[in-house]
């Protein structure tokens, strides 16, 4: 048995035969169809696929294909292609666009670069008149460098028990398909490490990222135990457990795909709506009408509270049509509420889109990157002004606590805010003065270090003393160990990655039943995170 490891992005355990999809372009195959005709054929194929997916209520996948249709008909892309160009030159057009997106630091653009490459491949295959047909007669684990919509649409997905994709990000098409259908998925693994002639079974763990080739009987036994454990976790994940814990679970949502893919009967609210995708995923500023439509779409999916984070963007997310400064250190520059207050027309329009949408009865507005009280008060004034103009009541207004200057001085804000939501990812980054995007600095990203926990505890204590809601919307709320510590510190509102609901509830049940003797003082006086983890194990 050989064991490998990638990054798990869609949870679960899968068992199936090793199956490779090779969708690399063979440029020696001649062009048989013109670019224009291929463009039309692919557009029609996507339209048909969208119709089929919508019939199966797979709206998130159909939205991806809608985006592909927009790309394939984008006048700027079409103008770059000349009918006299050979296949290599046509593909180079898509590669150049992809390379430009890859040059941006933002992860979102890097993942859209993958979509451009996938689209370029599908154009070339269509120009070569290649028809992909993958008949599966047994359960398989699929291995591929990347997967295009044409790949996934030509596979019997009921036979697919797992995906291993080398070149994919958390919101790539293949990952969206996997999450939507509950298929385990692992990315960031070089599939060339495995002999393509390998013809035996594979076990895939979508939680840990582990890949087992030709698994032993012991591994197969663990697979069975793992599946039983998953079923047990789901049994405990119910409204009675949530009520008994005295907590509320909310979802973190950051794209139209995530809105459409969401299907958890136990989560009725959004604790963090990341609005950046509305602006990033396009070549021109969204209209007020478009923003309102997205807000209304969000409203139909969730019946309770929606915490809407205003535009959290800065120099690390270069958007061509926005007046974003290029900075030496964009994470410490004009971003979040600082940018919104510099670009008040853009900010006011976003606020108007919220106040004019169906969200108005359930929305709370949260400002990111607040580090001084004046920034919050200036933003609050704009919301009140626009509310008065529209003759609506201003919604509750709060702060995303992600800077130590706020976490240490929450008393300064209690007369002005309606809620606090702790963004632990950036709070940790700014506490350690270490870029969380650099893997070389991982040791400076420990969420259970006492310096971070004292900041968080201070915010929770302020909320409890003054009857102000406190939630956590960062990754700590979705982490089993961290969620236990947060619960013991008094947190009762957890905004999580939706797929983590069963894990978090079971962790908190363990905390309530077995760890209630652990006092806050013991946690905050711990000498290191390892001893703390041992304490709660």
Describe this structure in words.
With 537 residues, the chain is an alpha/beta fold. It has 22 helices and 16 strands. 46% of the residues lie in helices and 15% in strands. Strand 4, helix 6 (149-153) and strand 5 form a beta-alpha-beta unit. The longest helix has 21 residues, at 35-55. The strands form two sheets. The chain has an eight-stranded mixed beta sheet with strand order 1-8-7-3-4-5-6-2. The mean pLDDT is 87. It is globular. The chain has helices spanning 35-55, 59-72, 75-80, 87-102, 107-127, 149-153, 173-181, 217-236, 239-245, 256-261, 277-280, 288-301, 337-342, 344-355, 373-390, 404-407, 424-432, 450-466, 480-488, 501-514, 520-524, 529-536, and strands spanning 2-5, 7-10, 13-21, 140-144, 160-165, 185-187, 201-205, 210-213, 248-253, 269-274, 306-309, 363-367, 397-401, 419-422, 469-472, 493-496.
